[in-house]
Design goal:
293 residues, 7 helices, alpha+beta, single chain, 10 strands, 19% helix
Length: 293
């Protein structure tokens, strides 16, 4: 059996040392669409090293190693074909603001394996800590087609919830460059699905698709810029479910609803629905929530 659920769950965490600096942060920001217009002061905080603020979703690529999806496939007990793998969801919890440069230890392990019958879902958790303590925790949910059916726990429902029925408080649109995936992959995700037409066809797509984590970063930037006045340090928690693909060259429509926070005074929550404008608002991110302080 390609997935040994018991072996994957019993394996000790894999620990690696990571480091990053302002150049890594700037490249990531460009990869998720920052810098347009290039001289806009609100964009310079993402692109100019003398006033740099780190978008919290940079944590998903900090250190330049394989992203959670790829990292899961190298976990003990997991041996599957990359072409059958999809990124199902992502969650990021910030313990402190991400610094412009740093060194840290990242400990990763598979914390859940679910049997969906026709597929398997694995959850890889990574805890990142520096000399001052915990920095962030992220969880990647990985969907592997054709690897279920061994009689394991089904886990939570994978069906996305519908967006709120009320009109959104804010709506923004963000154009995705034709070369956005080629730029984003320079931050460490070399999956050929995002660059090689032949590989994309083998995976069932008409052409290379944008990285889900690129859409994830672009959507968070829209919330920070629109609802948080550009203050990246206010983000506490950010989660999403990947509901569909984005093709480079399309336009993202980000709808936002403000809701009451549950963490006490000064906290808040934004719910989002993200869609592809050119495909009749086809959903691409669902169950998307940003909690902030």
């Amino acid at each position: 059996m390609p997935i040994d659920a018991a072996g994957a769950l019993a394996a000790a965490p894999r620990v690696r040392e990571i480091a990053w600096d302002h150049k890594d942060v700037q490249l990531y920001h460009l990869g998720v669409g920052a810098g347009r217009p290039a001289t806009d002061p609100r964009e310079l905080r993402y692109t100019l090293e003398t006033r740099l603020h780190v978008l919290p979703s940079f944590a998903t690529v900090a250190g330049g190693g394989a992203p959670g999806v790829i990292g899961t496939l190298s976990a003990p007990g997991v041996h599957v074909d990359l072409a059958r793998v999809l990124h199902g969801g992502q969650r990021l919890r910030l313990h402190r603001p991400v610094p412009v440069r740093g060194r840290a230890s990242a400990a990763s392990r598979v914390v859940a394996v679910h049997d969906k019958g026709t597929a398997a879902v694995l959850v890889l958790r990574t805890e990142v800590t520096d000399a001052d303590g915990p920095l962030w925790t992220d969880e990647a949910e990985v969907f592997v087609r054709g690897e279920g059916g061994w009689g394991g726990d089904r886990g939570p429902s994978g069906r996305p919830s519908p967006p709120p029925a009320d009109p959104p408080d804010e709506v923004v649109e963000r154009a995705v460059r034709e070369d956005q995936a080629l730029l984003y992959r320079l931050s460490g995700d070399w999956n050929p699905l995002h660059a090689d037409p032949e590989f994309a066809a083998r995976a069932g797509f008409e052409r290379p698709v944008l990285h889900g984590l690129c859409t994830y970063g672009a959507a968070l930037k829209a919330v920070v810029d629109t609802l948080l006045d550009g203050d990246v340090t206010r983000v506490r928690d950010y989660r999403t479910r990947f509901a569909g693909v984005v093709y480079p060259g399309e336009t993202l429509r980000v709808r936002m609803w403000r809701t009451a926070g549950t963490g006490g005074a000064g906290t808040g929550e934004a719910r989002m629905a993200v869609s592809a404008v050119e495909r009749d608002d086809a959903p691409v991110l669902a169950d998307t929530v940003v909690r902030y302080g």
